[in-house]
Design a protein that fits this description.
By secondary structure, this protein is mainly β. It has two domains: 13-128, Domain of unknown function (DUF427) (Metal Binding Protein, Guanine Nucleotide Exchange Factor, Chain A); 139-265, Domain of unknown function (DUF427) (Metal Binding Protein, Guanine Nucleotide Exchange Factor, Chain A). 6% of the residues lie in helices and 44% in strands. It has helices spanning 2-8, 256-265, and strands at 13-16, 21-25, 28-33, 37-40, 48-52, 60-62, 87-92, 95-102, 110-113, 120-123, 126-128, 139-144, 148-152, 155-160, 163-168, 174-177, 186-195, 199-208, 211-219, 234-236, 242-245, 248-249. It has a seven-stranded antiparallel beta sheet, with no helix packed on it. The chain is elongated.
């Protein structure tokens, strides 16, 4: 199944949405649709909303060509202006390049929208943030009494038999540890991120062997109810630390996230 899903990324994919979808600017709806479609452009990991042009209240005008081509998988950090399907960029009111008309007959008359170009999004009357949720994405949290040890360059950061393991579709298993089992001092970081499935994450740096490891771990202090079991626990980037489970060292994850972390933190 992982291979099938990975191979499917090479294609333009779409899925109808039954929910009412709205995008707001200055508190007023610019997009209001009960005919929204989730669209994944080729190589995009997360979907965008597309709606019929009639459901957009702002004028649509031609916009300049998008950003430079990006190789490999397009993770959520790659901006909307990078397109991998045929079509033309459009501005939505004063939001330059916030839309994209796809040259696909099945999606004729629809405009794909840049989630971050609008102030607020609603599904029905519930706010959503980060990006639209993927209906084929799943998260499970399981309590585990297995021995988990976290190391960096041979130094032990944490050791526990009280972890929560978070399993997420097509992503590495993440190990969430009680703070009392962390053996190094954690310093709050200014970094924040938002996951549509878990909520807002706060980041932590750690001094390991006299070297500060910036944003080495994160926690969800007030996660969504579906993942309440990880509230206040700390996870570390498996791409930057060594995880030893029941005495066996796990290989570090690869893929686009690991590559991005290597570039950002030179690990």
């Amino acid at each position: 199944m992982r291979d099938l899903l990975t191979d499917a990324r090479a294609s333009l994919r779409y899925e109808p949405v039954e929910r009412r979808v709205r995008a707001l600017v200055d508190g007023a709806p610019v997009v209001d649709s009960t005919r929204a479609i989730l669209v994944w452009e080729p190589r995009r990991v997360v979907p965008s909303f597309a709606v019929p042009e009639d459901d957009i209240a702002a004028p649509l005008t031609q916009a300049p060509a998008g950003g430079a081509e990006v190789a490999g998988v397009l993770h959520p950090g790659v901006p909307f202006v990078v397109h991998t399907a045929a079509g033309e960029p459009v501005s939505v009111g004063d939001r330059e390049g916030a839309g994209f008309r796809l040259a696909d007959e099945d999606l004729d008359g629809c405009v794909v929208l840049d989630f971050h170009a609008f102030d607020e999004w609603l599904e029905e009357d519930e706010p959503i943030a980060g990006h639209p949720r993927d209906p084929y994405h799943r998260i499970d949290v399981r309590r585990s009494a297995r021995s988990i040890r976290i190391e960096v360059d041979g130094a032990v950061l944490a050791e526990t038999i009280g972890a929560r393991l978070l399993f997420e579709t097509q992503l590495p298993t993440r190990f969430y540890l009680p703070r009392e089992d962390i053996q190094v001092e954690l310093t709050p970081s200014e970094r924040r991120s938002y996951c549509p499935y878990k909520g807002q994450a706060s980041y932590w740096s750690a001094d390991v062997g006299g070297r500060v490891r910036k944003d080495l771990g994160w926690s969800y202090e007030d996660p969504f109810p579906e993942v309440a079991a990880i509230a206040g626990l700390v996870a570390f980037w498996d791409e930057r630390v060594d995880v030893v489970v029941d005495g066996e060292r796990r290989p570090r994850p690869g893929g686009p996230i690991a590559a991005a972390l290597r570039d950002e933190f030179a690990v």
